Structure to design on (303 residues):
């Protein structure tokens, strides 16, 4: 089951607030955050910038009296963006410097009811129908300096730190969906009869499910190890990338094989395997693509 934008709210946003908000900000935001009266989203991606976050162009210029930032730009693919009350917007507070690409980015917690803030299209997706995925735009939005999260110019290091945990949540979600896919395929193939025999009785079905089960166990052990590292605050960025890469690619393979065992019914959305297939595809893309995970791992190998 996918919890959509509420899992972004609680799994992804909460660590940013707990680690970087002041006591005054926590008092303002956390009661509504916990009750659900204030739903949060996070906006990093822009139409021209996804994988290369250092290239973010949305700008936040400090006013002459230093009381607020003036926010301009646009974001896309924002989970929960259409319904959010507050959005953590990553914006450039000092001009782009090619010699320090990761510098000059800050996180502003923007009130969605501000003048100049608008929600664009809700993007139509092949899966994850539980969450809205929206475009946002900012036209001279005034954001009080009291709503700067953490220190100005430090957003890139906050993102790096939190993306490791975000990738871990994607990895254990992948393990759960792969496990569910195998359970569905076992139940379905035992029930469905072809040539007078249950599909589960064919050697191919047994071998495919045996392979899936072995792959799932490897995936589960890797994810459990990453969770233990995270609990001890020892999960490194490259290890989180390894867990996300392996978990999402393996889950994708497992779910695809389990769908195949359903025949045509696997392609019909009323069957849970079809929804798992459509919902899981994006895990190899969001939170950093598989290719970006490989670049992080390769760098860790000194390449
Ligand atoms: C359903 C959904 C929900 C999302 N939710 C959010 C959200 O809540 N907040 C948010 O900020 N973003 C969100 N995103 C955005 C997501 O994180 C980006 O789509 C993702 O990071 C990839 O960026 P991009 O789409 O611009 O792809 P691009 O960066 O344009 O990549 C295109 C292709 O180039 C490859 N590529 C890029 N760099 C390299 C490289 N160095 N070497 C080799 N290949 C490379 C990529 O792997 C990919 O295959 C969401 C996306 C989706 C689809």
């Amino acid at each position: 089951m996918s919890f959509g934008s509420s899992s972004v709210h609680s799994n992804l946003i909460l660590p940013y607030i707990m680690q970087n908000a002041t006591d005054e900000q926590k008092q303002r935001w956390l009661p509504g955050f916990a009750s659900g009266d204030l739903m949060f989203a996070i906006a990093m991606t822009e139409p021209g910038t996804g994988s290369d976050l250092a290239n973010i162009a949305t700008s936040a210029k400090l006013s002459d009296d230093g009381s607020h930032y003036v926010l301009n730009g646009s974001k896309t693919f924002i989970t929960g963006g259409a319904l959010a009350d507050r959005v953590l917007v990553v914006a450039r507070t000092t001009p782009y410097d090619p010699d320090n690409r990761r510098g000059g980015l800050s996180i502003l917690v923007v009130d969605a009811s501000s003048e100049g803030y608008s929600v664009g299209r809700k993007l139509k997706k092949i899966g994850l129908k539980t969450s809205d995925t929206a475009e946002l735009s900012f036209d001279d939005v005034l954001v009080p300096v009291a709503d700067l999260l953490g220190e100005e110019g430090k957003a890139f290091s906050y993102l790096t730190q939190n993306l490791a945990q975000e990738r871990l949540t994607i990895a254990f979600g992948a393990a759960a969906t792969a496990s569910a896919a195998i359970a569905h395929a076992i139940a379905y193939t035992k029930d469905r009869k072809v040539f007078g025999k249950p599909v589960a009785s064919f050697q191919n079905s047994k071998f495919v499910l045996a392979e899936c089960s072995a792959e799932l166990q490897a995936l589960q052990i890797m994810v459990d190890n990453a969770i233990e590292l995270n609990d001890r605050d020892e999960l490194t960025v490259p290890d989180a990338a390894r867990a996300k890469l392996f978990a999402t690619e393996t889950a994708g393979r497992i779910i695809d094989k389990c769908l195949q065992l359903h025949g045509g019914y696997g392609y019909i959305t009323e069957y849970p395997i079809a929804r798992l297939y459509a919902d899981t595809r994006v895990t190899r893309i969001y939170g950093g693509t598989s290719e970006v995970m490989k670049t992080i791992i390769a760098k860790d190998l000194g390449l």
